[in-house]
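Database export, one record per block. Field names are fixed; values are copied verbatim from the stored entry.
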Amino acid sequence: MAHTLQTFGVIGMFLSMLGLAACGSPAPTSTPTLDINPIRTEVAATVLAQVTQALALTPSATPIPSLTPTTAPTSTPTQEASPIPSATATLATGTPGAGTVDRAQWVSQSVADDTSFAPGETFTMTWRLKNVGTSTWTPAYLLRFFSGDTFGAPKEIPLGREIPPGESVDITIKMKAPTRLGGYRSDWVMSNENRRNFNAPVFLKVKIVTPVTPTPTP
């Protein structure tokens, strides 16, 4: 920038000299007139050369590259984990069916649920069931263990007689309480001669507790 100002200063000085030369007093007629056109031409050429050199030395502005917007990476959708199905216990005795031919209905039982027994105590359990299906229960029909604790009873109790639709039957089983303290449950289900289970099981829940020793009366 300083070099450019210096160049324009020189140009101004030459132009001032030319102006003074042009405005000077006219020379006597006898003196030959000085032709200043060659001087003007030379000065103009010099000025043009210096201007050209000054422009060549002036650094040109470097264009700033434009920033190209970068597309944000798209997130890949994650696949939801499929829920793990809960484990279902498979009963070896079979699942109760939902048919209408062989159906039993609970009527009553001799030992109420949540009855307390001492460890190893024996008792008699009786279920009264009603035939609410369309088939006649033959003597080969049976009540058999389904799940839980057997309470020391056989796993199959045959009926031993026919039960037509609409009638009830009492099924009595000798049982024994477990020896460890806690709550227990025993599930049983009616089945036909082909071991095909009925609609729903019956059950008994008991509590095994420490027996209370009676205090002797004085």
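Remark 1: The first helix runs from residue 2 to 23.
Remark 2: The two ends are 129 Å apart (CA to CA).
End of record.
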